[in-house]
Amino acid sequence: MKILLLFLDGVGIGAKDPTVNPFFVATLPVLRSLLNGKLPHKKLKQISTRHAELVPVNATLGVSGLPQSGTGQTAIFTGVNGAKVIGRHFGPYPPTALRPIIEKQNILRRLKELGRSAVFANAFPKQFFEYTDSGTRRLTVTTLSCLMSGIPLMNIEELRNDKAVSADLTRARWPEMGYPELPIVTAEQAGMHLWEIAQEHDFTLFEYWLTDHAGHSQDMKKAVAVLEAFDQFLGGIMAEFDDRSLIVLISDHGNIEDLSTKSHTRNQVPLLVIGKRRQEFARRVKNLTHITPTILRFMQE
After folding, report:
1. What are 196-253's pLDDT values in tens digits?
2. Hey, which of 86, 118, 131, 225 has its CA 20 to 30 A from 235?
3. Residue 276 pLDDT > 90, yes or no?
4. Edge-to-edge strand order for the sheet containing 118-120?
5. Quick one: which of 194, 189, 203, 133 has its CA closest to 165?
6. Cβ of 220: how many Cβ atoms within 10 Å?
7. In the chain, helix, strand, coil percent, each to 5?
8. Residue 152 per-residue DSSP state
């Protein structure tokens, strides 16, 4: 089984209120098609169709306060409740106390130890590699997991050859980072590229953080554009998708679903599972710490 994990930063299940929730303003034909024309909201948190399973997942992890990326992503990518370990939510980067856990228990390392091939499909510009080479400790759980596990981070060459995907999907931001010659692609084409990458590995991870940035901006137009781009991206993935594989979509905390606040929310986050054994996978996940163990279980069967 091949598993594609789509991690969306800052996406919760909010109210069915188009004045604050961009999900009910945006045009999202692919997502709606998968969910029989529906979208999740606080009064409809679980949706089961012949294509997909969507269930709500707890992101507060039994710790008071607003969920944060550092501890939430630790839970997703290691299976360890980082917020409970340090006694509070913390972010956007994981604290030093969680680094040994991330190093030893991150999903990329554990899959590698099982003999499975794993890839983090996001591409990074030269400025990022200069930043990491400087010895900075301000890195996300995903990038730390790669660096600590010997999983190479993708660069401009992989992106140019469609072996990696830009975090903004279309590559529109790369010219301002010093790559004016890089061709722009559509979000749908980026999704097709990701699907092709996923066919070469047992496990593929892609991170989309623009959702969290849009939520913090409280800008409805920006939030709608970010969601619509992702929907087109998902359409590109689904264009060649087959049910022998599994797509898992998860977030670390709520944010974009409620533009009435600049902060994160305590809302449950959506787990969307598409493909083979989707119902079984969805049943096993109640909170963020269940993602990694469930993927590992499926990979070992």
Report:
1. 999 999 999 999 999 999 999 999 999 999 999 999 999 999 998 988 899 999 999 9
2. 118
3. no
4. 47-48, 52-57, 269-275, 246-251, 3-8, 203-208, 118-120
5. 194
6. 17
7. 40, 15, 45
8. P
What does the block give as tokens for 296?
């590992």
Q: Which residue has the tokens 């594989």?
A: 245
What's 161's DSSP letter?
Answer: T
Q: Are 47 and 278 spatial neighbours (Cβ–Cβ below 8 Å)?
A: no
Say if residue 130 is exposed, middle or buried (CB neighbours under 10 Å; 0-12, 13-18, 19+).
exposed
On the question of a cis peptide bond just before residue 94, with omega within 30 degrees of 0, the verdict is: no
Residues of 268-281 as b/e, b for ≥16 C-beta within 10 angstroms? bbbbbbbbbebeeb
Torsion of CA 248, 251, 255, 258, to 10 degrees: 30
Instruction: Residue 272: name the closest of 34, 44, 76 by CA.
Output: 34
DSSP code per residue over 172-213: TTSGGGT-TTSPP--HHHHHHHHHHHHTTSSEEEEEE-HHHH
Residue pLDDT, tens place only, 180-192: 999 999 999 999 9
239-to-28, 68, 178, 236, 249 alpha-carbon distances in Å = 15, 34, 32, 5, 17
User: Whole-model pTM?
Assistant: 0.98
For CA atoms 258, 91, 175, 182, the dihedral sign is negative
Residues 6+ apart with CB under 8 A from 272: 34, 52, 53, 54, 247, 248, 249, 250
Q: Could you count the other beta carbons within 10 Å of the beta carbon of residue 34? A: 22
Residue 296 CA from chain centroid, whole number: 17
How many CB atoms within 10 Å of residue 71? 30
**For the segment 12-55, what is each residue's pLDDT rounded down to a tens digit?**
999 999 999 999 999 999 999 999 999 999 999 999 999 999 99
